[in-house]
Amino acid sequence: MNDQDLFSLLALLKVDGVGDILGKKLLSSFGSATEIFKAKNTQLAAVDGIGSILLKNLKDKTIFEKADKELSFIKNNNIQVSFFQDESYPERLKHCFDAPILIFTAGNLDFKKKKMISIVGTRQITSYGTDFCRKLIEDLAPLDPVIVSGFAYGVDIVAHQAAMDHNLQTVGVLAHGLNQIYPRTHKKHMAKMEENGGFITEFWSDSNPDKEKFVRRNRIVAGMTEATIVIESADKGGSLITANMANEYNRDVFAVPGRVSDKYSQGCNNLIKTQKANLLTSAADLVYMLNWDIKEKPKNVQKQLFVELDSDEQKIYDFLQKNGKELLDIIAIECEIPIFKLSAFLINMELKGIIRPLPGKLFESI
Predict the structure, then answer these.
(1) Alpha carbons 166 and 140: distance in angstroms, whole number
(2) Which one of 101, 107, 307, 310 counts the least CB within 10 Å of its CB?
(3) How far is residue 244's CA from residue 222's CA, in Å, rounded to a whole number?
């Protein structure tokens, strides 16, 4: 995208009353933001949603001053900009009807990776939530997923730090412009985040972290990932909004259960109870439900010459050695192991390099 195209897009987004949905209608009708501003009133009025007030706003010359100022900020600070039709734009986010027309990024981001999950939850994370989050990311690390969160207190920053500890790409979705960071205490994590990951926002440099912007931010967290995981949440909170948005986008949602008496497990328990989220007790649950194939990362899954197996793993391995390829359900029945336990055993055995998954929930020994 050249400077003129970007300038025109920025100006379009500064038109009062033009949001992402109406903006896309205009772009579809005229082909580019530059052509929109060249169009006659009769042509503009033919677009559904354009009335007399918007026609007047589209002729407001001050939008170009604002666009010029933002373009200077972008160029002076090496900000990367992605248009919603660009290859660099997160693929899953493209399919959300209300996805931002432009996103601004900083760091070393690669949105082309297949495995991308968001981890959200309360800002008052407990030791239970912290331990679960760190263990989950540790167990998922061999699959090299991208970890997305909101860079806030609590679950968000724990997820980002755990991802960095295991050299995973991690992305912070911000509710403000890239000229600042919120909360300020997290500024110390920025440099390391940007080494392998970074930050993404739809907001301009003059945007402060106002309350309503966090809700808008949440749709990006939900929309750009394959699944959203709620670690801990009270009965109300931003993470539940993110979970609902993920459901609306037809994404998988997972929630970590907790005791009924725990305040910050009430939201998760309710998501599970109302069937708005899958129960998540381990990385194996996630791998199974998302049908992730561990053999895609062969360097981290090598068969060992001497592998230690517990009694259940040995039973599973012997069964597959004898019967060859077999369905997950059949393995559970024949080995007399419940599926929720079997999933955990299978992922451990895959990591040890002694079995591999096949399409159709089949498994075989190596």
Answers:
(1) 10
(2) 310
(3) 9
Amino acid letter, 65: E
Scored b (16 or more CB within 10 A) or e, 156-194 reads: bbbbbbbbbebebbbbbbbbbbbeebbeeebeebbeebe
Q: Long-range contacts of range 296-305, CB-CB < 8 Å, 24 or more positions apart?
A: 296/114, 296/143, 297/142, 297/143, 297/144, 300/142, 300/144, 300/351, 301/142, 301/350, 301/351, 301/353, 302/353, 303/352, 303/353, 303/354, 303/366, 304/352, 304/353, 304/354
Residues 343-358, mean pLDDT to the nearest whole number: 84
- Taking only Cα atoms into account, the Rg of the chain, rounded to an integer number of angstroms, comes to 24
Query: In terms of DSSP H, where are the helices of the chain?
Result: 3-13, 20-30, 33-38, 41-45, 52-57, 62-76, 91-94, 127-140, 155-165, 190-195, 211-223, 238-248, 266-273, 283-290, 311-323, 328-335, 339-351
pLDDT exceeding 90 applies to what percent of the chain? Answer: 77
Q: What CA–CA distances, in Å, run from 36 to 31, 58, 68, 265?
A: 8, 9, 17, 49
Confidence label for 341 from pLDDT (cuts 50, 70 and 90):
confident
Q: What is the pTM of this model?
A: 0.79
Average pLDDT rounded to a whole number, residues 223-241: 95
Contact of 62 with 10, CB cutoff 8 Å: no
pLDDT digits (tens, 9 = 90+) for 108-132: 998 887 799 999 999 999 999 999 9
Q: What is the mean pLDDT of residues 48-71?
A: 94
Q: What is the pLDDT of residues 264-277, one digit of tens each?
A: 999 999 999 999 99
My answer on whether omega of the bond before 183 falls inside 30° of 0, hence cis, is yes
Q: Which of 239, 259, 236 is nearest to 247 (CA)?
A: 239
**Distance between CA atoms of 159 and 156, rounded to whole angstroms?**
5
Asked if 150 and 172 touch (Cβ cutoff 8 Å), the reply is: yes
